[in-house]
Write a structure and sequence with these properties.
Helix content: 40-55%
Distance between the termini: 10 Å
CATH superfamily of the domain at 89-249: Class II aldolase/adducin N-terminal domain
Largest sheet: 7 strands, mixed
Structural class: alpha+beta
Strand order of the largest sheet: 3-2-1-4-7-6-5
Number of helices: 8
Radius of gyration: 18 Å
Strand content: 5-15%
Order of helices and strands: HEEEHEHHEHEEHHH
Length: about 250
């Protein structure tokens, strides 16, 4: 993995490791084909610092992001370093609101792939009758579309829609997922994406689906949470995907 890049003297080791993981996460989103050109965002809260987080420099492709060029902002989107880049204002209302309100969420990823956006268009939202959809049972909130998320007055409504969940479906738009760290958030995003892909494919086949009972859905979701909580499962998955990406594409930076 390309974590051997030189750490700037002014950057703590803890912040640097976060920067390396976040930059890898951006590259993974591109590797899996989940980007929306230069748009969308992944943010990570800085350790032991309230109200500060790292985001992508707006205008760069995800493959151009490195640990050094990630920018530091506060929850209102104000830039806190001397980077020549700015952030994307459309991300601050969503990411800033979640980071300010949810102490248990240290990383937020926003995407709108074809499959996820298709599910977000449907009144019923996510099905929990597939292997991956069942893992999301009880974890999904829904927020009605109000246009591009630029305005402060929408923050409270988004947070109310999210509640204590970790997946926010932005209806007619896409999703935001958040977890305790980058590794768990990426694994959650992968699960959501797989659930959406299977749901879209199943819907195209025709015929009746085999439905799962609520008890099975609950059991599946609970077991998944147990698996990723302390076992290192999400870390292993994230690191394996970085190795796979760099084996195929070469070092990220």
């Amino acid at each position: 993995m390309s974590s051997h890049v030189t750490k700037p003297d002014h950057c703590s080791e803890e912040e640097w490791q976060l920067r390396v993981k976040l930059a890898h996460c951006y590259h993974l989103i591109d590797f899996f084909g989940w980007t929306e050109t230069i748009f969308n965002h992944i943010s990570a809260r800085l350790p032991h610092i309230d109200g500060e987080y790292l985001v992508n420099p707006f205008g760069l492709n995800y493959t151009e992001i490195t640990p050094k060029n990630l920018i530091k902002v506060d929850v209102k989107g104000n830039k806190l370093d001397d980077s020549p880049y700015d952030g994307n204002p459309a991300g601050f209302a969503l990411h800033g609101a979640i980071h300010a309100a949810r102490e248990d969420v240290h990383c937020v990823i926003h995407t709108h792939t074809n499959e996820v956006s298709a599910v977000a268009m449907k009144k019923a939202g996510f099905s929990h009758d597939s292997f991956y959809g069942a893992q999301l049972y009880g974890r999904v909130g829904y927020h009605d579309f109000e246009g591009i998320t630029l305005f402060d007055d929408e923050k409270e409504r988004m947070l109310k829609s999210l509640g204590d969940k970790h997946i926010l479906v932005l209806r007619n738009h896409g999703i935001a997922v958040g977890e305790f760290d980058i590794e768990r958030t990426f694994f959650l995003l992968w699960t959501v994406q797989r659930a959406a892909e299977i749901q879209v494919t199943s819907g195209a086949l025709g015929g009746a689906d085999v439905l799962l009972g609520e008890d099975v859905q609950t059991k599946c979701a609970d077991l998944t949470q147990m698996l990723i909580k302390d076992s290192g499962f999400a870390d292993k998955f994230f690191n394996a995907m970085v190795r796979k990406m760099e084996l195929e594409n070469g070092p990220c930076w």
